[in-house]
Amino acid sequence: MPALPPPVITVRRLVKSYGEGEAAVHALRGPTDAEGRALGVDLTVQVGDFVAIMGSSGSGKSTLMNILGCLDVPTSGRYLLDGIDVGGLDEHQLSLVRNRKIGFIFQSFNLVPRTTAIAQVELPLAYAGVKAAERRRRALAALTLVGLADRADHRPNELSGGQQQRVAVARALVTAPAMLLADEPTGNLDSRSTDDVLAIVDRLNASGRTVVLITHEDEVARHAKRIVRLVDGRIHEDVRQGPPVGPPPALLDPVGFAAASLHIQNRAAVALPPLGSGR
């Protein structure tokens, strides 16, 4: 039997505190022992899973995202990303891990002004030292995957919000990272663009891409195979909505999924009779 790949994320006894003593704020603490000491957060994400991390303001979800994205370090505990223990890495090594292992998608798109879509997507490859011709080929392939090959030469101010986020998705996946880490990726989008972006994320996950998505919207979290809810720096609920391997919920039952959607256009499409039904 072939060996199973290591989990993409393995977090053990993770604690993040700000300040010291009586004034310390525990952003991540997990459960506590009989003496009130934080035992830390444990979390494992398998290859191919699609996890939505939810929580209100102050729950610790942004802190957890920053640690998972190697943008911050925990006070204590251990974090393995795709089998790599990131705790012992220096800043240069962490930047390499971020570039090669994580594809970031942000709420605010984080596109470079006056730079074409294809050049935006090439940026992570340029940082990785990929040659120009190969950068262009891979960037165009990523734009094609998100349906924007015909907008390759357009700048951000020539694209809609949904198109800008799709460029950001292409930029995130162009390095073939171990996981896509999306922070409120639909927070600045209308319902139509939200549908378009989530449909792309669904298809990427169905193809085997691991996705960790931070959101406060139940409608967005419905797309995930697993929902992890944080309350006061600890995991309050961990609910599995689908198996780690295989299509996400929206692709397993697209008609039923659309019928329960909050987006009016989805429900309307389901309500229409099929062609040739005579209704």
* Class inferred from helices and paired strands: alpha/beta
% residues in beta strands: 15-25%
Strand numbers in spatial order across the main sheet: 7-8-9-4-10-11
Instruction: Report the C-alpha radius of gyration, rounded.
Output: 20 Å
Unreliable parts:
267-279
- Overall geometric form: globular
The N- to C-terminal Cα distance equals: 54 Å
Number of strands: 11
Specify the biggest β-sheet.
6 strands, mixed
H/I helix tally? 10
Mean of pLDDT? 90
Helix content bin: 25-40%
Helix-strand pattern: EEEEHEEHEHHHEHEHEEHHH
Walk me through the structure.
The protein has ten helices and eleven strands. Helices cover 34% and strands 22% of the residues. It is of the alpha/beta class. The C terminus is likely disordered. It has a six-stranded mixed sheet, with helices on both faces.
Please give a quick description of this structure.
Helix content is 34%, strand content 22%. The protein has 279 residues and is α/β, with parallel strands linked by helices.
Secondary-structure blueprint of this entry?
Elements: E1 9-18, E2 25-28, E3 41-45, E4 50-54, H1 61-68, E5 76-81, E6 84-85, H2 91-101, E7 102-106, H3 117-127, H4 132-145, H5 161-173, E8 179-183, H6 191-206, E9 210-214, H7 218-221, E10 226-231, E11 234-240, H8 249-252, H9 254-259, H10 264-271
Parallel strand pairs: 4-9, 4-10, 7-8, 8-9
Antiparallel strand pairs: 1-2, 1-3, 1-5, 5-6, 10-11
Helix pairs in contact: 3-4, 3-5, 4-5, 5-6
